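Task: fold both queries, return tokens.
Query 1:
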Amino acid sequence: MRTIDLLLEEYGESHQNPTNKWIHWICVPTIMFSLLGILWTVTLYGPLTLGMVFLGAASLYYLRLSGTLFVGMLLLSLAMAWGIMALEQAAGSFAWQIHVGLFAAAWVGQFVGHKIEGKKPSFLKDLQFLLVGPAWLLHFVYRKVGLPI
């Protein structure tokens, strides 16, 4: 069995409750967006931000797991980057506060979901599950439209 299949299966073991799954559909993308937004505010050199470096590293991780999953996560990441830049334009120096608020609220939601599930979040066992969560959601979309993972 491929590594991506094993990771998705293991992640899914602690995400069986329908309410927890529903919460994850809201909170995982929100966490991803807000974390990228927070990292985007840290300038490394010129226009290069920590968020861009994180996206690059995460993209390499997804590429190692699955070419098709990499494409979907890259498109999703680029859409989020566009949203982050649009929020920065609209909110100016308050954008980071919006990201922090979204990040905190989404994590509260995640822990509520896992309380309902009765199982600990997967990332407490292995930090790579922080990157597997968005891919786990995307794999359902892929299945729905008939794309291979």
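Query 1 returned. Query 2:
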Amino acid sequence: MHLVTGCAGFIGSKLVDRLLALGHRVVGVDCLTPTYEPEVKLGNLERALAQPGFGFRPDDLVMADLESLLDGVDVVFHLAGQPGVQTSWGAGFADHLERNVMATQRLLEASLSTGVKRVLMASSSSVYGAVKGATPEEAPVRPLSPYGLTKLSTEHLAALYGARGLDVVPLRFFTVYGPRQRPDMAFHRMIKAALGGPAFPLRGDGSQRRSFTFVDDVVDAVVRLADAPGIAGCVLNVGSSTTTALVEVLDLVEHLVGCPVPLDYQGRPPGDPDLTHASVERLREVIGWVPTTSLEDGLAAQVDYQRAQNGWEVRTSRIPSVVSGSLSS
């Protein structure tokens, strides 16, 4: 049996659906924190809740009886946590500390005591900080934000419990996008703006580049790592090896929606790196994984999903179907 923490979230709910489709029994846990509407999160689980192989527990990992939760579980997919670079500054750090560090420590402790065979744990490219090019896992880690610091702390916890015999594999995700993406994330807000929502807050000039990675590709890697041999304690990047500038993504969203994205120009916030760039050679060696979804195809799927879910009226102003820059992912 598999346990997915953060099962009602963006990546977690997609992972649950994939595991169920493969015939696995899955327990999902999510305390439905108010980072966005709990109704949206429960909507992510609509398909899973109709499956006999899925059980949902609305528990908080910081307070729940985790040993009973882990009874009969072989593999843990630990995706729960407090997201957001900007919300981690100031008073918001307390939530990040509790939901990222404390929750992870309790889960690893319980996994060790109950004999869980493997814990696959979500980390982040934010642990790297400022980089100049493609970043392998052995690159220096110098987070630029309290959020990145908490994710790096969870990796150190993984190493400590690994030394005690727990098979833990931290996965550094690089800017995941696609259907069910959180409403606070950039692509969701761009598409919403093009469909008539509030203007997109462009922080800086949009030249910052990211390894944007489609959610289905991420889920494919995570599922395949569940039983991959010889990876205990191995940190792995999961991301696109191609980078794209934010302004190029804006062009592509406008092309796909057929309407301009209104912009609200703002200054660059603290903790926002100029570049994230995944080197995935280690993951390719372990399971032969490379991302297969182009940025255009992945964004088209997200546009279709947001249209269907929210029913925004499309703006009447049309733009030419021209996209600038290299947009493959």
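Both queries returned. Flag for query 2: Residues 262 and 280 are 35 Å apart (CA to CA).
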